[in-house]
Amino acid sequence: MAHAYSDYKTGYEKLLKSYKVKPNWVSIIDNAANRIFKHRDKYKKIEDEIGVPWTFVAVIHNLESGSDFSTHLHNGDPLTARTKLVPRGYPKTGKPPFTWEESAVDALKLKGFHKELDWSDAKVCYNLEMYNGFGYRPFGINSPYLWSGTTVYSRGKYVADGVWSSTAVSQQLGAIPLYKKLKELDAQKEKEEAKERKQLLKENSRSYQALATIKSFYKWATAGIASIPVMDYLGFFQNFLSSWGGPLLAIGGILLVGWVVTQYIMSRKEEEFKDGRYTPSGIKDDPAATE
């Protein structure tokens, strides 16, 4: 049976909107997410190499091996040899013992995830189910691999390879609630890091400081012009505005465009600093920065 994403997309979207985390699983999710988040930088190396979001890699790692970095991402087998379980005999190249990064890249490429361009939540659901298998669908069960710990899964699981139980309940945390929590922590961390980068630029980059001053000027000048007709409730500037309203509007428009352009340049500089393509002069001149 073919398992096309187009056939499942709407179903995933409905589940993503309707599911809730069961109360007794909240602390389990929080603890797992906080534990995994400590290794964010290690997972992000995989993302930087092949473009697969680190949060996606992390949830697979948690499900396949309890986030054990001494095992294959493919299935949790030890890195000291090629995989024994399905998929068997991976990685095909190289010699054991393998590094966790080597194995992780191999496992993700094996599924073609390095070619994936759509990382929407619905497509993530599909990719996770594809990774584990679509074996729950014939039983009308939302895969516990994705949904365990949520209100859209209650019972039914494979208790061994090919052995189905309609009454067994998965005790393993599902990928989706964990994935969503990791995305939440990641967004918070990105926000904090962006704030820190801005502060470093303000303290160490002369060009960024100049841009910030120019931006501030544009902001207050634009606000000042815009406030004239608003504050003229007594009509003191009525004659003035009738003669100069057009030019003032044009000047205000120019100032607004200037603010937008300056903001864009500052954002680009922030991105360059983030990617390591720009180092502020103040940091270059600081001996401690190179230590």
Brief account:
Residues about 285-290 have low confidence and may be disordered. The radius of gyration is 27 Å and the shape is elongated.
Report what the structure shows.
The protein is mainly alpha-helical and 291 residues long. It has two domains: 175 residues, no CATH class; 86 residues. Helix content is 60%, strand content 2%. The protein contains eleven helices and two strands, in the order αααααααββαααα. Strands 1-2 form a two-stranded antiparallel ribbon. Strand 1 and strand 2 form a beta hairpin. Helix 3 packs across helix 4, helix 4 crosses helix 8 and helix 9 runs antiparallel to helix 10. The protein is elongated and about 85 Å long. The N and C termini lie far apart (58 Å). The C terminus is likely disordered.
Alpha-beta classification: mainly alpha
Overall average pLDDT: 90
Helix-strand sequence = HHHHHHHEEHHHH
Number of helices: 11
- Terminal residue distance: 58 Å
Gyration radius, in Å = 27 Å
Number of domains: 2
* Fraction in helix: 55-70%
**Total E-strand runs:** 2
Weakly predicted, low-confidence segments:
287-291
Sheet-strand content, in percent, reads under 5%
Strand arrangement across the biggest beta sheet:
1-2
Give the SSE layout.
Layout: H1 5-18, H2 26-37, H3 40-50, H4 54-65, H5 100-110, H6 121-132, H7 144-147, E1 157-160, E2 163-165, H8 175-204, H9 206-231, H10 238-275, H11 281-284
Antiparallel strand pairs: 1-2
Helix pairs in contact: 1-6, 2-8, 3-4, 4-8, 8-9, 9-10
